[in-house]
Amino acid sequence: MALYPELDTPSVLIDLDVMEDNIARMQAVADRAGVRLRPHTKTHKSPWVAGRQAEKGASGVTVAKIGEAEVMADGGIRDILIAYPLYGEYKLRRLRPLLERVKITLSLDNAEVAEGISRLGQETGRKIPVYLEVDTGIHRLGRDPGMETVEVARDLVKLPGIDLIGLITHAGQGHDARNREELIGVARHEGRALLETAEMMRREGIETREISVGSSPTAPFVSEVPGVTEMRPGTYIYNDVMQIDAGVATQEQCAATVLVTVISRPAPDRAVVDGGSKTFSSDAPASYGHGEVGPRRHPGFGMVVGRPDLILQRLNEEHGMMGLADPSMDLKVGDRLRIIPNHVCGMINMHDEVIGVRGSLIERTIPVAGRGKIR
Amino acid sequence: MALYPELDTPSVLIDLDVMEDNIARMQAVADRAGVRLRPHTKTHKSPWVAGRQAEKGASGVTVAKIGEAEVMADGGIRDILIAYPLYGEYKLRRLRPLLERVKITLSLDNAEVAEGISRLGQETGRKIPVYLEVDTGIHRLGRDPGMETVEVARDLVKLPGIDLIGLITHAGQGHDARNREELIGVARHEGRALLETAEMMRREGIETREISVGSSPTAPFVSEVPGVTEMRPGTYIYNDVMQIDAGVATQEQCAATVLVTVISRPAPDRAVVDGGSKTFSSDAPASYGHGEVGPRRHPGFGMVVGRPDLILQRLNEEHGMMGLADPSMDLKVGDRLRIIPNHVCGMINMHDEVIGVRGSLIERTIPVAGRGKIR
């Protein structure tokens, strides 16, 4: 019996039972810690899924682009953090109507970006709430915690059209932690660095009220640092091989898989499946984007459910080259396999829709309405 | 004066003058060699661009998916090679109406796939033309040249609903050639291996007429092997860092660039631009998908036009982390840069539309109508 005979391949499956468990588990983490959960929608890019998170207690959503905020507002989400520096007249022009429709919060790390937003605040007669982003180790946006950040804060509080509500960070380098102790160390640093910087700001008379942290690997440890007010994990909704390798998810907690078909067995130790980098994204084993190679355990471009003897070794755009550890194991043209992606956010962004299933039953098509919103 | 002030960023620019030169140059290569040029549309995914190639002499197009064939047929292309093994009832059901609308040729590498296609041929009262794919070194689909392939051909000619018209291959491993001599060696092997295998088939009474090769790096050398009838390069239409590194394109021959804005200067040696893996794809310096790392010369995730002092070192989904070789060089928040992607096919597939320009003038929006057609 073929897997999901109702579907052509490749197709992206979301196991809704697993997704709902993931939502409940992370909400419980947030509730126990007394922290607001504002999930990042980069993973699912779906207002329908965001609605399921809100039902269980999420306080709003996090997005990275104006286009994603528009999609979420259209889908009924009323509290949106655009956690990305919005620079330039085109973006501010699109931001203006959003300010009227929903509660918008922004984040940024420099005065040049803040000045444009402040002007928009003045023009529209409001103080736009902004977070100041701090670099707690990913070396992306933000200055170092401490005086480096306080100096930026001093410039921001002079601007009349913004309200500096707090500090924000993303400790994505948790993926590179070599064990649970290191990961907890990253989580503690993420929160403490912000709290200590906020205290330094307070001593200079810069009062803020929000401390926002977030990444799926560090999220389970948010209660380690009292004083954090908000967390913004995204990947936990579906999980992926990166989360398994970070030690914060099991294979059974991975909700998203790609259903593929074997289209060729050109050699005894090789099978080719009908999904490549255009289906999985090319997010590679050794390149999660955080610099050096992390301590990951699973080889290849994904994990084949129920078939640890198969390794997805190489991807071309439309081809997945799979190595057979044991060529005598059964695998023939037409066989279907389910593959957990390395990085589910990159994978989901390749697709216009995904299929919600419960076990072997197909329940609904879920449009990825926020896919490809690069602006 | 900002680059392209009419556009928000990130935006994908296609320099149409450069594109037209690339079309003319490759058509001249094909014409001189007496070989039909059937460009692969995986790079541009646009019927409009395919039309520009056809105007200059292209004999048709190559696609990988039924959905891409549908888009090209809708866009007026009348001769389409689907160079991908189509397996299963869903795909054959969609193939049927295409057979009535346009000239369709298929490729495959095994009898299991061929049997389904043969049944469709019989049901629709025709012999569907198919190529047999041969592995000339990329180790993707296909058996080795010689008797391995002849054995598959013997099975195919027994099937009543297909017409085995010839042999096809893709020597994508040309990207890993260390110098021009090695690359010419790959191109010679690509053509000769097919011709020798066709001759072996002929001795067994299996007459075929077509020899189809293709990859952008080997394409300029197609005249090295008399007897090739068709070539299918794709990337040459826009070119990218991979083509530069393979020695078959210059930076000036790269038509596609991503226009980005500097959104932060968090450290003297770091700038962050508003394009990451969701804009460029995550096709990485050390991972072109052909196995081992090739002998590439350009570091990073793209080349910054006119700024060799800037290296796009890391990508997160929405962030491009750029290293400054010389922190004293000018680069500030709001500055715009144009970046040539490593792998243009992967980049284009992230976008719903691209912007056709001539120098600094904006000429047209080009929908990427074939984007994301995973089936």
Quickly give the structural class of chain A: alpha/beta
Strand content range of chain A: 15-25%
CATH superfamily of the largest domain in chain A: Alanine racemase
Rg value of chain A: 22 Å
User: In whole angstroms, how far apart are the ends of chain A?
Assistant: 44 Å
The CATH class of the largest domain in chain A is Alpha Beta
Low-confidence stretches of chain A: 286-293
What percentage of residues of chain A falls in helices of 4 or more residues?
Answer: 25-40%
Report the sheet with the most strands of chain A, covering strand number, pairing sense and barrel closure.
Answer: 9 strands, mixed
Order of helices and strands of chain A: EHEHEHEHEHEHEHEEHEEHEEEEHEE
Give the overall shape of chain A. Answer: elongated
Q: Which architecture of the largest domain in chain A per CATH?
A: Alpha-Beta Barrel
Q: Quickly count the domains of chain A.
A: 2
Q: Give me the number of helical elements of chain A.
A: 10
Number of strands of chain A: 17
Quaternary structure state of the chains depicted: homodimer
Largest interface: A-B, 66 and 66 residues
